[in-house]
Design goal:
Blueprint lengths: L1 E6 L5 H10 L12 E3 L5 E6 L4 H7 L4 E5 H7 L5 E4 L5 E8 L14 E4 L2 H11 L4 E4 L15 E6 L3 H5 L2 E10 L1 E5 L5 H21 L1
The structure holds phosphoribosyl ATP and zinc ion (ZN).
Length: 210
């Protein structure tokens, strides 16, 4: 039996469940159950907050997980990635008030930047030679500039309409992300074989979709 952690309720949930079903795996799911067992594959599915998934897989509480690369890399476990899944594509971008002048990332030197991704942003800014004051907040990041909490933000963007609606404009792409399958790095031989079967099925599903 192999244990897979997926997001309980959020942007990754539906596509994760659909992918597992399209792999030919049947299971019951209901919104109040936190785990379920497949009926035709030795798989147990755990439903968790996405932020908890990388740590659980790193520690071996779960063998496998489906999570966004943004959350995986921010958690500090990029090496757990085994397969790109092609959904939940988005980017982590820097944005400033539309009224502000901007010519390059050097303009952010000494500025206050609000983000939920201090690790990824910190590494990006260090690579650009820019020193800024990062303020870590866990949600509603887009409101920070208009209420005077920060000069800029770094947050997830997909359509861009949230930025627009908060009077912001995107000035730099810091990181590109999609959903990935992750795996514990010390799986038993049996679990490794199950992982390979799952990866093979996921690759077939993706090929058939194209
Ligand atoms: O409760 P839990 O902790 O499990 O979920 P969560 O609220 O932390 O995450 P959730 O469900 O919002 O997102 C899960 C993952 O989906 C993220 O980690 C990303 O990998 C991916 N993803 C893809 C996105 C988006 N697209 C996205 N648009 N995550 C968040 N957003 C936000 C964005 O920050 C903005 O505030 O959606 C808003 C709308 O975006 P626009 O640009 O389309 O307006
Ligand atoms: Zn989360």
């Amino acid at each position: 039996m192999i244990r897979l952690a997926i997001q309980k309720s959020g942007r990754l949930s539906e596509d994760s469940l659909t992918l597992i079903r399209e792999c030919g795996i049947s299971f019951m799911s209901s919104s109040y159950k936190l785990k379920t067992e497949a009926t035709n594959f030795p798989l147990e599915i755990l439903f968790l907050r996405d932020d908890d998934i990388p740590g659980y897989v790193q520690d071996g509480v779960a063998d496998l997980g489906i999570v966004g690369q943004n959350v995986l890399v921010e958690a500090g476990f990029p090496d757990l990635e085994v397969e790109k899944l092609g959904f939940s594509k988005c980017r982590l971008s820097l944005a400033i008030l539309r009224s502000e002048a901007y010519s390059s990332v050097a303009d952010l030197q000494g500025k206050n930047i609000a983000t939920s991704y201090p690790q990824i942003l910190g590494r990006y800014l260090a690579g650009e030679g820019v020193q800024a004051n990062l303020h870590t907040i866990s949600g509603s990041v887009e409101i920070a500039p208009s209420i005077g909490l920060a000069d800029a933000i770094c947050d997830i963007v997909s359509s861009g309409s949230t930025l627009l609606g908060n009077g912001l404009r995107e000035v730099e792409t810091v990181f590109r992300s999609e959903a990935v399958l992750i795996a514990n790095q010390t799986l038993s031989a049996e679990k490794q074989a199950l992982l390979e079967q799952l990866q093979f099925r996921m690759q077939s599903v993706r090929r058939a979709r194209r």
